[in-house]
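User: Show me an example of a complex going from sequences to structure tokens.

Assistant: Sure. Here are the input components:
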Amino acid sequence: MEGSLITRMKELRASFNMSQEELAEKVGVRRETIARLEKGAYNPSLKLAMDISKVFEKSVEEVFRFEILNEVTLKTFAEGDRMLLNKKGQKYADVKNLFNDLEN
Amino acid sequence: MKKYSLIVREMLTDGIMGFVFVVCGIMGIFRPVTLFSVFMVNISLAIEIIAIILRYKNKFEVWDEAARTHYAEARKITLNVLIVVLQIMLIIGLCFNFNISINAFHIMILCGAIQLMLFTTFTMIEKRDA
């Protein structure tokens, strides 16, 4: 099952008028860890997720959400990759032209 | 109160010590400079002790779960590299039937290289996700 963790931490932190440093101190981690969590670059342990949710007075599900990529999406991505890899030159040029057109 | 980062702590322990060990080890192999090596190793040991005291006085950032995960990843990479290097050395030794004699400086280089690699890998992983 592939997916990614989506968090509302940044938005909730702003509503609580709290800095990353303050939140980090409250839950006993480093500021960098909070930054990583907000960027979705790190998956927290259940304890940390619960501690953060407690600070924001919300349930874990309200703060963190795990978005599962369904099979259709994965197949579409895989198909796109395959097409790009098979006809690399032509397709790559087509995509590049498309982006160039969009930019102009 | 401003706290020192974990990378600074690692530099004061594994980083400096690893560097001193490697340099002294290489110098010692070509021209034994035992007194100089002992002097340098003692200095790096003193720095490490200072870092440990500072750690107990909470002058460094906390070891949170992200840091532990990154350190575990760094140790895994270091261990894998070490195993591969030792296996290559073993194969070379077996194939060519080498009679290998090692002295303290060889051990010093190996020890220093492990510490230095651990520090470098940890720093790179920390910077990668930052």
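The lines above are the inputs; the final block is the predicted structure for all two components together. The CA atoms of residues 20 and 31 of chain A lie 6 Å apart.
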